[in-house]
Design brief:
It is built from 23 helices and 16 strands. It is an alpha/beta fold and about 550 residues long. It has three domains: about 220 residues, 3-Layer(aba) Sandwich (Rossmann fold), CATH 3.40.50.300; about 60 residues, no CATH class; about 180 residues, 3-Layer(aba) Sandwich (Rossmann fold), CATH 3.40.50.410. About 5% of the residues have low confidence.
Length: about 550
C-alpha cells in the first residue's frame, strides 16, 4: 500500500473524480472559508463537462424552475414564460450552503435525483453549529475540508483536458470486484451509516478514480482513497481494536485450495480494518465532533432561538422588502417599489419609445412585503433519574440542565422538566418561565430504582403535543444511559421495555418533534444509538464530560 494522500492531494483526487463523472458522483461538499485555497478548488472545477450556474440560498422557485416573465408579458400583451436555470443539466454552485433553508434543500435534492445534475455546495461554516442540510449531504459523494491546510502545500490544480477525455471514455469499461462491493457496504454499516447512498457513491467514486488512473478495476489504493473522500464525514468511527496477541489458527488441511483462491480473488480489496485506519489517518482529529454538533443543530433548527420562524407576506414583524415577482400570495410593497423607481424616472422618460404620462415602472423596481412571526419555544428536559444513571452521571446531568435553564431564562424560553425512575415518569414542572421554581424542582430530583425509558418517552410526547396545540414549538432533550428495563405496564421486562421504547420513538418521529439524545453513560450504549436512529435524532455520546461541557454541546445543538 502506498503512502496516504496529503489533504491537498485528496482535494486533487476529489476534483479529478468529479470531473470524470459529475452526474454519477452528484457533487462536492466543500467546507472552507472564502480565501485563496477555496478559490483554487473552485477554479479547478471549471474542468467539469457541465455549465455552471450559481445559486444563492434566497433564490425563489421562479428562478429555479421558470415562471411568467412579467416585463415581456406587459410589453408584448400576451403571456410569456421564462425558463428556469434548472431547465437543463448543469453543475449548480450553491454559495453560503450552510444557510440553505429546508425548502430549497428539498428542491435541490429532487433535482439531484434526476440524471445530469451535480451540486457544488460552498459551505463557509463560520460557526461550529453550521453545516449543509442533511438531504444534500446525503446525496453528494465527495467531502473536502480545507481548514488547516498550509498555503505552501497547495500546488496548482490543473487537469489536462486530453487526460480527462480519455478517462471519461474509459469510465464505462471499469468493473468493480464483487468483494469490494461487500467490503465497502460492511464498512459503511460499521460506521453507523444508515443511508444506502453512501456505499453506492463510494463505488461510483472508485470507478471514476480508476478511470482517471487508467485502472480496469479499482485497486487497493483507489478503494481506500474513495472511502476517505465519501465515507469519512458521514458516520462515527468505531474504537480502534487492540491487536490480538494469539496467532491466527492454521488453516484446515482440507481447505488450502479454497483459501488461496479467495486470497487471490480479493488481493486488490483491502479489509475493513485497513480502510478504517486509512479514514482515521485522513481526518482531522476534531472534524467528526464538529460535524456531529452541526448535524445536531440542523436537526433542532426548527426549535432554535424563539421557536419556529415563519416568514410570509401577511402578518408578523415586518422585514425589509426584497426584489421579486408578485404571485403565489406575494404582495407588492408599494412604497418601497416607488422608492426604487423614483431615481430612474427622468432617464426613463427621455429614453421611452412612447411618450406617455405617469410613472415608468420596471420589473427590477418591484419590491415584495415580508413578515416574520415566531412562536414560543419549549425545552422539554427528559432526565433519567434511575439507579444506573444516578450512580454514573445524574449529578453532571443536573448541573448541565441547570446551566441550560439559565440560558433559556435569558432567551425567555419556556422550560418543562420530566423525570423517569422506578416504574413511571413524572412531569415535575409543566412549561414555565420561572427559573427559581425550575431549579428548585431539579435540585430535589431523587435518583434510584428502575429505568422506565418508555414511560419517559410517552410523557415527553404527550407534553410536546399539548404545547404544540397551544401554538408553541417543542424540543425534547433526552438525557439517559439507555438501559431501559421497565415496560409501559410497569413490568420489569427488558425485552418489552425495549419494544415499547421503539414504538414510542416511531411515534415521536412521526409527530415530527425535534429530539436530541444525549448518552450520559460511562460508555456509549449501542442500544441508545439505535433508539436515536429510530427517532431520526442526533446522538451525542458524552461519556466523560462534566456539567459545563455537557451544557455547552447541548446548548450549541439547541441554538441551531
Amino acid at each position: 500500500m502506498s503512502d496516504p494522500l496529503s489533504p491537498w492531494e485528496r482535494a486533487e483526487a476529489a476534483i479529478a473524480a468529479l470531473a470524470v463523472d459529475p452526474a454519477g458522483l452528484r457533487g462536492l461538499w466543500l467546507r472552507a472559508r472564502s480565501g485563496p485555497l477555496r478559490d483554487r478548488v473552485v477554479q479547478a472545477l471549471a474542468a467539469l463537462p457541465l455549465p455552471q450556474r450559481r445559486l444563492h440560498p434566497g433564490v425563489d422557485d421562479a428562478t429555479l424552475f421558470g415562471g411568467v416573465d412579467l416585463s415581456a408579458t406587459l410589453a408584448q400583451g400576451q403571456l410569456v414564460r421564462s425558463a428556469g436555470i434548472l431547465a437543463s443539466p448543469a453543475a449548480i454552485v450553491l454559495t453560503m450552503a450552510e444557510r440553505c433553508p429546508a425548502g430549497l434543500a428539498a428542491r435541490l435534492a429532487r433535482v439531484l435525483d434526476e440524471p445530469g445534475f451535480c451540486l457544488i455546495a460552498l459551505d463557509e461554516g463560520a460557526e461550529p453549529d453550521e453545516a449543509l442540510a442533511p438531504a444534500l449531504a446525503d446525496r453528494l459523494a465527495l467531502f473536502l475540508d480545507l481548514d488547516g491546510i498550509p498555503s505552501a502545500d497547495a500546488f496548482p490544480l490543473v487537469l489536462e483536458p486530453q487526460a480527462l477525455a480519455e478517462a471519461r471514455a474509459r469510465l464505462g469499461d471499469v468493473r468493480i470486484d464483487p468483494k469490494a462491493v461487500e467490503t465497502l457496504t460492511r464498512l459503511a454499516a460499521a460506521m453507523g451509516i444508515a443511508s444506502l447512498r453512501a456505499p453506492l457513491l463510494t463505488l461510483a467514486t472508485a470507478r471514476a478514480l480508476a478511470a482517471w488512473r487508467g485502472e480496469a478495476t479499482p485497486g487497493e489504493d483507489t478503494l481506500r482513497h474513495a472511502a476517505e473522500l465519501t465515507l469519512a464525514h458521514r458516520g462515527m468511527l468505531p474504537e480502534a481494536s487492540e491487536p490480538d496477541a494469539a496467532p491466527p489458527p492454521p488453516p484446515e488441511p482440507n481447505e488450502p485450495d479454497s483459501a488461496e483462491a479467495e486470497s487471490r480473488q480479493s488481493a486488490d480489496t483491502p479489509p475493513e480494518e485497513m480502510l478504517l485506519d486509512a479514514i482515521r489517518a485522513a481526518l482531522p482529529p476534531d472534524l467528526l465532533a464538529r460535524l456531529a454538533v452541526a448535524r445536531a443543530a440542523r436537526a433542532a433548527k426548527g426549535s432554535g432561538g424563539s421557536g419556529d420562524a415563519r416568514k410570509g407576506n401577511h402578518r408578523g414583524r415586518p422585514l425589509p422588502p426584497r426584489p421579486g415577482t408578485p404571485g403565489s400570495g406575494k404582495r407588492i410593497d408599494l412604497v418601497a417599489t416607488l422608492r426604487a423607481a423614483a431615481p430612474w424616472q427622468p432617464l426613463r422618460r427621455k429614453t421611452a419609445l412612447v411618450d406617455k404620462p405617469g410613472l415608468h415602472i420596471r420589473q427590477s423596481d418591484l419590491r415584495l412585503k415580508r413578515y416574520v412571526e415566531t412562536s414560543d419555544r419549549v425545552l422539554i428536559f427528559t432526565v433519567d433519574a434511575s439507579g444506573s444513571s444516578a450512580l454514573a452521571r445524574l449529578a453532571e446531568a443536573k448541573g448541565a440542565v441547570e446551566l441550560l435553564l439559565a440560558q433559556a431564562y435569558a432567551r425567555r424560553d419556556h422550560v418543562a422538566l420530566i423525570a423517569f425512575r422506578g416504574q413511571s415518569a413524572e412531569l415535575l414542572l409543566p412549561p414555565t418561565r420561572s427559573l427559581v421554581q425550575t431549579k428548585r424542582r431539579l435540585a430535589g430530583l431523587p435518583g434510584g430504582g428502575g429505568t422506565p425509558l418508555a414511560a419517559g418517552l410517552q410523557l415527553a410526547l404527550l407534553t410536546a403535543l399539548q404545547t404544540r396545540a397551544r401554538g408553541m414549538t417543542p424540543t425534547i432533550a433526552l438525557l439517559t444511559d439507555g438501559r431501559g428495563n421497565i415496560a409501559l405496564d410497569g413490568s420489569p421486562s427488558r425485552a418489552e421495555a425495549e419494544a415499547d421504547s421503539q414504538r414510542l420513538a416511531l411515534a415521536l418521529r412521526n409527530a415530527q418533534v425535534p429530539t436530541l439524545v444525549i448518552d450520559i453513560a460511562t460508555r456509549p450504549q449501542p442500544a441508545l444509538r439505535d433508539l436515536a436512529a429510530r427517532l431520526d435524532a442526533p446522538y451525542l455520546p458524552l461519556p466523560r464530560a462534566d456539567a459545563h461541557r455537557l451544557s455547552a454541546v447541548l446548548g450549541a445543538a439547541l441554538e441551531g
